[in-house]
């Protein structure tokens, strides 16, 4: 069995925070790193790029060790490319010169560097921008050129730091498709930091979830997002998640509440999560009677229009279960009007047991 293309063990200690992770990536694989603010994503990228020296661990790219105790290969000799939220193009250089800069800095002759630059500008649909400076480009155009510049030196590892976050809603889908096509065509090994489940689904083969400086779950992208094991992952996947311990017919939360559901690969007594989609949540102004086995009071924290539906975000009520914080229910605009919904109202969320899956928390 061959060694992975990227092998990373990273330890960074700070007064109020410790990053301690270990993961790998195969050649040509795209790994998404997701997690809440403060989870350690930016610190991890800084270490991989060579901008931060860790307190311990080892980073190997191909057959080269670039970080180890007593060894720190500087950024310009590391073979790592970066595409961030902002394009950060050199303002005094044309698009062609920006893209050619990396190969030229690595000793490639001018003619060959410019040929590589023209090839990549064409690949990112920006050939007509070759002689423009950044001030004469839109944000989407600048990001296309920045992608070409990041790929131009043929980096061993490409770091994608929320590259679509600063783009408007019209430019982001085209850039997402372009990233997928070009990264695949170049067989580029990449690490993608994102807060968007769609970015991960479209671009990444695997997902690593960071929380408080630790990896809390990882695996194939669709599997992780379909079966989240942490509240953050569930939220960006658009699902509701309740942690607890598996029972014969569901789950018991830390405060003793029972959530009825279908057990899926989990044994009674094991740490588990109950997961259900917001569309499965019914909303009532008064406590409902009848078939739903999972009924709990919430305070309406926020009303979020989302196209054809409205997402209601819950918070806890005094004396009620605390785990409802952040849970969501999707309803129609008509339901919002019929119920006269306003933030601060006390409501009842109801979910049928048949709509609730209970599976292992680890």
TrEMBL record:
Entries under InterPro entries matching the protein: AAA+_ATPase, ABC_SmlMolc_Importer, ABC_transporter-like_ATP-bd, ABC_transporter-like_CS, Mo/tungstate-bd_C_term_dom, Mop_domain, P-loop_NTPase, Transp-assoc_OB_typ1
A GO molecular-function annotation: ATP hydrolysis activity
Gene3D superfamilies (alphabetical): 2.40.50.100, P-loop containing nucleotide triphosphate hydrolases
Pfam families: ABC_tran, TOBE
Keyword Acyltransferase: no
GO biological process: molybdate ion transport
Keywords of the record: ATP-binding, Cell inner membrane, Cell membrane, Membrane, Molybdenum, Nucleotide-binding, Translocase, Transport
ABC transporter domain boundaries: 1-237
Residue ranges occupied by any Mop domain in the UniProt entry: 289-360
SMART domains: AAA
Name used for this protein in its record: Molybdate transport system ATP-binding protein
Taxon lineage: Bacteria, Bacillati, Actinomycetota, Actinomycetes, Pseudonocardiales
């Amino acid at each position: 069995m061959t060694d992975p293309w990227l092998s990373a063990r990273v330890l960074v200690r700070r007064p109020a925070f410790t990053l301690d992770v270990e993961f790998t990536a195969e050649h040509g694989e795209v790994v998404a790193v997701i997690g809440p603010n403060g989870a350690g994503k930016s610190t991890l990228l800084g270490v991989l790029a060579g901008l931060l020296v860790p307190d311990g661990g080892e980073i190997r790219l191909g057959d080269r060790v670039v970080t180890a105790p007593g060894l720190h290969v500087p950024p310009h000799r590391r073979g790592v490319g970066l595409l961030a939220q902002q394009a950060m193009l050199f303002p005094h250089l044309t698009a062609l010169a920006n893209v050619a800069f990396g190969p030229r800095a690595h000793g490639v002759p001018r003619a060959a560097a410019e040929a590589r630059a023209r090839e990549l500008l064409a690949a990112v649909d920006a050939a007509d921008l070759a002689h423009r400076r950044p001030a004469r480009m839109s944000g989407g155009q600048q990001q296309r050129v920045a992608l070409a510049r990041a790929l131009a030196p043929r980096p061993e590892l490409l770091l994608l730091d929320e590259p679509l976050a600063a783009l408007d809603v019209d430019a982001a889908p085209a850039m997402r498709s372009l990233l997928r096509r070009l990264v695949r065509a170049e067989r580029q090994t990449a690490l993608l930091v994102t807060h968007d489940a769609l970015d991960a689904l479209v671009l990444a083969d695997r997902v690593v979830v960071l929380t408080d400086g630790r990896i809390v779950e990882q695996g194939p992208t669709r599997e992780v997002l379909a079966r989240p094991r942490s509240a953050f992952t569930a939220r960006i996947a658009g699902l509701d998640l309740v942690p607890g311990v598996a029972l014969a017919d569901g789950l018991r939360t830390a405060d003793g509440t029972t959530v009825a559901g279908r057990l899926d690969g989990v044994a009674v007594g094991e740490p588990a999560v109950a997961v259900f989609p917001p569309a499965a949540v019914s909303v009532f102004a008064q406590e409902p009677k009848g078939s739903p086995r999972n009924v709990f009071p919430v305070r309406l924290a926020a009303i979020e229009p989302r196209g054809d539906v409205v997402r209601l975000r819950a918070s806890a009520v005094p004396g009620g279960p605390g785990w409802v914080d952040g849970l969501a229910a999707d309803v129609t605009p008509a339901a919002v009007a019929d119920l006269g919904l306003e933030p601060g109202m006390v409501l009842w969320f109801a979910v049928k047991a048949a709509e609730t899956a209970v599976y292992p928390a680890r």
